[in-house]
Amino acid sequence: MAMGSSWKALLAAVAFLAVLEVGLVSANFSDQCNITWGAPDNAEISDYGNHLKLFLRDNSSGAMVETLKPFIYGSVSTMIKLIEGDSAGSVTTYYTCSDGDFSVHDEIDYEFLGNSSGNPYTIHTNVFADGVGKREMQFKPWFDPTTDYHNYTIFWNPCMIVWYVDSYPIRVFRNHTGLPFPTQRPMYAYSSIWNADDWATQGGRVKANWTLAPFVSEYRDIDLKVCECADGADDKACATTCAKSKYAAEEPCKLTDKEKKEMDAIQLGYTIYDYCVNAKDKAAKDPENAKPVPPECYLEQY
Ligand SMILES: *[C@@H]1O[C@H](CO)[C@@H](O)[C@H](O)[C@H]1NC(C)=O
Ligand SMILES: *[C@@H]1O[C@H](CO)[C@@H](O)[C@H](O)[C@H]1NC(C)=O
Ligand SMILES: *[C@@H]1O[C@H](CO)[C@@H](O)[C@H](O)[C@H]1NC(C)=O
Ligand SMILES: *[C@@H]1O[C@H](CO)[C@@H](O)[C@H](O)[C@H]1NC(C)=O
Ligand SMILES: *[C@@H]1O[C@H](CO)[C@@H](O)[C@H](O)[C@H]1NC(C)=O
Ligand SMILES: *[C@@H]1O[C@H](CO)[C@@H](O)[C@H](O)[C@H]1NC(C)=O
Ligand SMILES: *[C@@H]1O[C@H](CO)[C@@H](O)[C@H](O)[C@H]1NC(C)=O
User: Fold this and answer.
1) What is the pTM of this model?
2) 218-243, pLDDT tens digit by residue?
3) Which residues are catalytic?
4) pLDDT tens across 176-185, in order?
5) Are 208 and 194 in contact (CB under 8 A)?
6) In 3-state terms, what secondary structure has residue 238?
């Protein structure tokens, strides 16, 4: 008897401690983010800061959240459940971006382009380094991103940027010597929902059906493992500190063989657009008029 009840007491104590520990260590949306557009109507935080909903109600509103602090290197993960049913015309974004002069800015993107019922979302990715962009790759998901939460990660160290979905790498952008790669500008992480029915879905042919509004994307478990810039540090000081941080140093500069196989399988089965393939095709068809193929398209991907 005594044994039984002390076990119960112990279990209760362990459960209580576990809750306490989660309370102490886990980050949440209310602690780490600011709603910079759409509050209070179109952005809602609940469940002790752990559950975020962004609402798209009409063609001119939406919402955006932004991390409070900028960072250089690390990984940003969030569980996201995208708009259910007919999401045509909507875009849900999830990205990092530097402040300041846009013509030389850095940015790492996921954009989730909605679709009509029964048609797949497009997972759009892009990267800007020193203002150089147009590095799009698009995928269709191998799962339904609207019925459950899935884990989207932006990983960034001095060697490479990796886009992970449920811990599978889908894309790598490497730091090739002499080519633009973000190392100097702190970035904030953002997420937003907005109307883009003039272009997003099937080239803009399929519009949002506003009688179905609001359209809602939901978020859980924000996980920032990043080298935050110290309060008051300028970009240069942050770049110097973070270049020496564990986020820059401890991570490998290569995918593992297992990760390479996973990425190859996903790219083979689910890529719907690749800027390198597109540029090479154009150059092959019309060498005189085609734009130059970006140099990294001829270099090792991982
Ligand atoms: C989450 O956010 C709330 C509100 O800002 C805060 O009081 C709390 O300590 C945070 N952490 C957890 C795990 O609830
Ligand atoms: C949050 O965003 C609002 C709107 O842009 C801004 O006025 C406010 O200063 C921000 N708060 C913090 C703590 O950054
Ligand atoms: C947005 O909706 C309003 C009211 O329904 C309409 O008058 C306006 O033309 C729409 N604007 C765009 C850009 O679609
Ligand atoms: C990344 O790029 C910077 C600037 O181009 C370069 O100085 C640095 O050596 C590169 N780092 C790695 C690990 O490749
Ligand atoms: C999401 O994936 C990242 C990278 O694999 C991982 O570190 C993180 O713990 C995952 N988050 C959740 C909630 O599973
Ligand atoms: C929507 O579905 C169509 C038909 O399957 C597909 O061609 C398109 O790439 C999908 N995504 C978007 C954003 O239109
Ligand atoms: C918009 O949604 C309503 C409600 O489900 C439906 O009756 C209508 O047919 C939809 N319109 C279009 C153009 O799909």
Assistant:
1) 0.90
2) 999 999 999 999 999 999 999 999 99
3) 107, 111
4) 999 999 999 9
5) no
6) helix
Q: Which CATH code for domain 5-298?
A: 2.60.120.200
Residue 92 beta carbon below 6 angstroms from any ligand 6 atom: no
Give 81-102 pLDDT, tens digit per residue: 999 999 999 999 999 999 999 9
Cα 110 from Cα 126, distance rounded (Å): 7
Q: Is 24's pLDDT higher than 60?
A: no
pLDDT value, residue 165: 98
DSSP 250: S
| Cβ partners under 8 Å of residue 10, min gap 6 | none
pLDDT above 90 coverage of the chain, percent: 88
142 in Cβ contact with 132 (< 8 Å): no
The DSSP line for 256-288 is -HHHHHHHHHHHHHHEEEEHHHHHHHHHHH-TT
Cα separation, 168 vs 165, whole angstroms: 5
Q: Is the CB of 271 under 6 A from ligand 5?
A: no
Residue 23's Cβ-side half-sphere holds a number of Cα atoms within 13 Å equal to 7
Indicate whether residue 36 lines ligand 2 (CB < 6 A): yes
Ligand number, closest to the Cα atom of 116: 6
**Which of the ligands is closest to the CA of residue 33?**
2
Distances (CA, A) of 296 to 20, 125, 127, 177, 257: 48, 16, 13, 10, 21
Name the residue among 100, 27, 106, 40 with its Cα closest to residue 67.
27
Residue pair 238/70 in contact (Cβ under 8 Å)? The answer is: yes
**Long-range contacts, 227-236 (Cβ 8 Å, 24+):** 227/71, 227/72, 227/73, 227/74, 228/69, 228/70, 228/71, 229/69, 229/70, 229/71, 229/72, 229/186, 235/100, 235/184, 235/185, 235/186, 236/184
| Per-residue pLDDT at 251 | 64
